[in-house]
Amino acid sequence: MALAKEKIYEPLNEDSAVVLVKDLGLFEKEILLECEEIGDGNLNLVFRIADRLNNKSVIIKQALPYAKVVGESWPLTLQRAQIEADALKIYHQHTPNLVPKVHYTNNDLAVTIMEDLSHLKITRSGLIEGESYPLLSGHIGEFLAKSLFYTSDYYLTPPAKKALAKKFYNPELCKITEDLVFTDPFFNSETNEFEEELTDDVQKLWNDLVLKLEAAKLKKSFLTEGEALIHGDLHTGSIFSSNEETKVIDPEFAFFGPIGFDIGQFFANLLFQIISDTGKEKIILDHISNTWNSFQTIYSDLWLSESHEKYTRVEGYLDYVLKKCLQDAIGFAGCELIRRTIGLAHVQDLDGIPSFDKRLQAKRNSLSLGREMIVHRADFQEISGFIDYLRTFQF
Ligand code: SR1
Ligand code: MG
């Protein structure tokens, strides 16, 4: 272990990744290891190292000093590796079955070595291929309720919460979200990427001052409301699933933010599945409804049984917090629908639609649904009203 700590940062390759795990004593020195770089995300290197003989494997994730999706012209802090590992450890305390186990971290190398989840599939890919993952929404509802309650002022004392929030000071990664989710797609920004055929739709969106005012309010919430430790990037590419298991990964965007944000990102990334294939409407709407209902039930139980905050006993306060959370989530989901359609970092659910015409129509639907959800979010008092609205939307 000491040897690895003395190393200075350099990006790993398949050979040096093997040397690292052997130096750390995670595998025997003489054993034959297979190593493959499997990272398909926007930011990091990910290696899978396997000892086939003993059926043992680990994942090494290493942050690069720049955003991989853009290149070295976009420098990025290596400190995000520490934020991610710290968030995983906190999640592990509250929902051990829903996150990978962290075996080792090294902040100098920006490396986290964790449980290999290769027996599971990235949820976005599985859903695209037609999986329905019956336990997904119950698990994510539980993850959201526990992570968002146990890191809030209702459970932690205010000084303890502030000390924790300091640890998750994450300005560079927050800036990515502030720009890419809340600002750039609503203006003529260089980072935007969309088909020429969508130009009229996009111009209309940029000229929509009602929409922009509501997007500004949502950005303000993201900038200023440090309610609890949020994952910050909870899309379906940050979740591994099978029919039996669900694991949340990649919390490098974690910071203290508004609790509706994670819920909204998850909702939006589920909605891409209906937008790209209306045949999936029932499965996906059931998942959205069930995510909210599990979140609400578990969060409310924790509020009643484990809160130290005197005001949590005041009639109407929980309802106020939950209603605001739902409306924020619907608005944040609207921003995510728009940004994944015309901003930087698209999603395969839309970009993978083979027919050009259908792809364009799906993207138009995504933009108009996103707009409606942002502008009308305050109309929804309950999840059932939101689900009824989605049932009537012309996808
Ligand atoms: C430059 S990073 C682009 C996107 O990838 C991450 O997964 C986040 O969603 C971010 O917005
Ligand atoms: Mg990620």
Automatic annotation (TrEMBL):
Q: Which GO MF terms does the UniProt record name?
A: ATP binding; S-methyl-5-thioribose kinase activity
Q: What is this protein called?
A: Methylthioribose kinase
Residue positions binding substrate: 233, 339
UniProt domain Aminoglycoside phosphotransferase: residue ranges = 37-268
Q: Which GO terms describe its biological process?
A: L-methionine salvage from methylthioadenosine
Q: Which UniProt keywords apply?
A: Amino-acid biosynthesis, ATP-binding, Kinase, Methionine biosynthesis, Nucleotide-binding, Transferase
Q: What is its EC number?
A: 2.7.1.100
Provide the reaction this enzyme catalyses. 5-(methylsulfanyl)-D-ribose + ATP = 5-(methylsulfanyl)-alpha-D-ribose 1-phosphate + ADP + H(+)
SUPFAM superfamilies, sorted: Protein kinase-like (PK-like) (SSF56112)
- Which residues participate in ATP binding? 44, 61, 115-117, 250-252
Briefly, what is this protein's role?
Catalyzes the phosphorylation of methylthioribose into methylthioribose-1-phosphate.
The pathway where this protein functions is: Amino-acid biosynthesis; L-methionine biosynthesis via salvage pathway; S-methyl-5-thio-alpha-D-ribose 1-phosphate from S-methyl-5'-thioadenosine (hydrolase route): step 2/2
Listed under subunit, the entry gives: Homodimer.
Recorded family membership: Belongs to the methylthioribose kinase family.
EC top class named in words: transferase
Asked if Nucleotide-binding is a keyword of the record, the answer is yes
Pfam families in alphabetical order: APH (PF01636)
